[in-house]
């Protein structure tokens, strides 16, 4: 004899399945709030300023975490990073703001990773 679900059991199973599917919705798209210890991006990414040695990200005007990849240089012991399409530099060094398509960006990047990148 085949057993079928009652209408209330079917509704319960459907509800649990739907809750399971929706529980992760939006989690990956939600902005990550910045911690109180992170500096404001506007305080770090200023032309001629200095990128902190321990830079691990900053918070934007909306208090949202902004993180750029920090790459270990292969040609020296520095660490290279960018912010948006405009700012770049090495940790502990000057902030440059002439864009990631500038000759000075290419020069700094080559000094960090070699000319054959």
Architecture blueprint of SSEs:
Elements: H1 7-22, H2 41-44, E1 58-59, E2 65-66, E3 70-72, E4 79-83, E5 87-90, H3 103-113
Antiparallel strand pairs: 1-2, 3-4, 4-5
Characterization of this structure:
- There is one protein chain.
- The chain is an alpha+beta fold and 117 residues long.
- It has a domain at 41-113.
- 26% of the residues lie in helices and 14% in strands.
- The strands form 2 sheets. Strands 3-4-5 form a 3-stranded antiparallel beta sheet, covered by helices on one side. A two-stranded antiparallel ribbon has the order 1-2.
- The radius of gyration is 24 Å and the shape is globular.
- Residues 1-27 have low confidence and may be disordered.
| Contiguous runs where pLDDT drops below 50 for at least 5 residues | 1-27
Helix/strand order: HHEEEEEH
Average pLDDT reading: 79
How much helicity do the residues have? 25-40%
Q: Which band does the percent of strand residues land in? A: 5-15%
Q: Which strand order do you get reading across the main beta sheet?
A: 3-4-5
Distance between the termini: 70 Å
Biggest beta-sheet profile: 3 strands, antiparallel
Total helical segments? 3
Gyration radius, rounded: 24 Å
Counted beta strands: 5
Which structural class should the secondary elements be placed in? alpha+beta
Shape: globular
């Amino acid at each position: 004899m085949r057993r079928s679900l009652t209408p209330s059991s079917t509704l319960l199973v459907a509800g649990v399945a739907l809750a399971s599917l929706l529980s992760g919705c939006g989690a990956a798209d939600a902005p990550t709030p910045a911690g109180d210890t992170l500096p404001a991006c506007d305080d770090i990414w200023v032309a001629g300023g200095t990128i902190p040695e321990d830079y691990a990200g900053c918070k934007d005007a909306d208090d949202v975490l902004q993180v750029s990849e920090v790459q270990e240089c292969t040609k020296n012991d520095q660490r290279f990073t960018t912010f948006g399409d405009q700012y770049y530099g090495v940790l502990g060094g000057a902030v440059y703001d002439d864009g990631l398509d500038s000759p000075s960006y290419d020069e700094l990047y080559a000094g960090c990773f070699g000319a054959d990148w």
